Amino acid sequence: MKIELADAYRDTALGSEGAELLSPCVQCGQCTFRCPTFRLLGDEWDGPRGRIYLIQKMLEDRAPGGADMSPGYSLETLQGRSPGATVQHYLDRCLSCRSCEASCPEGVRYGRLLDLGRELAERLAPRPIGQRLARRTVRVLVPHRRRFTALLRAGQALRFLLPRRLRVRIPPRRVAGPWPGRTHARRMLVWQGCVQPGLAPDINAAAARVLDRFGIELSPAPDVCCGAISLHMAAADEARAHMRHAIDALWPHIDAGAEAIVFTASGCGMHFRDYGELLRDDPRYADKARRISEMTRDIAEIVTGVWTEAAGPRLPTPASPLRVVFQSSCSLQHGEKLNGIVEQVLKRAGFKL
């Protein structure tokens, strides 16, 4: 895709990265039918090809239309909004599933382009005060484990007082279960996440017990924000500040010999794999961020790597295999590109999928 940056973006980091990300796209449309919002709504602007075109026009400071516009696009649905508000509207409706990346023959990094487009649209089209306050509240509360958990516990305690339509939205409290007490020569960190310790504390505890069976000691990573929510909500500077803080908190553990940073939530793992790219222009943190990305591992990757015939637990053979259903998340399949790895572990453990 040829792009002629507007003067306002020509010598900026945002403009340079935007042009670099847009360049491989040839507007072939192979991504379109992988997109859930396009399949649901049937509007080209609600597909990745349309969104990419809108981001291009925003960086060129031009209105959509002209000889470079695909015949599949319709300008009628764009009426009534400013260019920035138009892009914002359609980017907001993207699920960030990145399924389009799996079908793109040119390797367009749509996920990163989406975050950049959202950041730019936010500058060009400030939201109404109500939306700004709501989004700010999410960024202040959700990424901070103690704040989120305190509110969740209050909701759980008062759950019986709420109307049924609200009561069913508050999950019951779950018990974490025991954390292994043994120490091992091999040590790794497990990222706690922002909402998982409050909603599902049993997951990381179970991961620690699994890796304990393989002779690996799993320790909770420091309780800091990773920056993912801020990044996806177009607060890029805030996101990078969180990322630098997370690196500073993790680094003493890395220096002390931690082999890997283990993730039991693929959305978090996907974000950490992008640390090196997101901080590549930071002279103080670029190398450390790249190291963090290299150390990022999904729990299934660790189990697959250490579970050999000679090492690992011996599992009893059940009379009839337990049947389970596993749905691979978008972030695991398309973000981390680990499609099929969890299924391998489950089958080896004796489950019938």
Give me a quick take on this structure:
The protein is mostly helical. The protein has 19 helices and four strands.
Kindly list the characteristics that best describe this protein.
353 residues, four-stranded parallel sheet, 4 strands, globular
Helix-strand topology string = HHHHHHHHHEHHEHHEHHHEHHH
- Specify the structural class: mainly alpha
Based on CA atoms alone, the radius of gyration comes out at: 23 Å
Helix content: 40-55%
How much of the sequence lies in strands comes to under 5%
* Overall mean confidence score, pLDDT: 91
Treating each run of at least 4 consecutive H or I residues as one helix, how many helices? Answer: 19
Poorly predicted tracts of residues: none
Number of strands: 4
The largest beta-sheet arranges its strands as 2-1-3-4
| Terminal CA distance | 43 Å
Q: Based on Cα principal axes, name the global outline.
A: globular
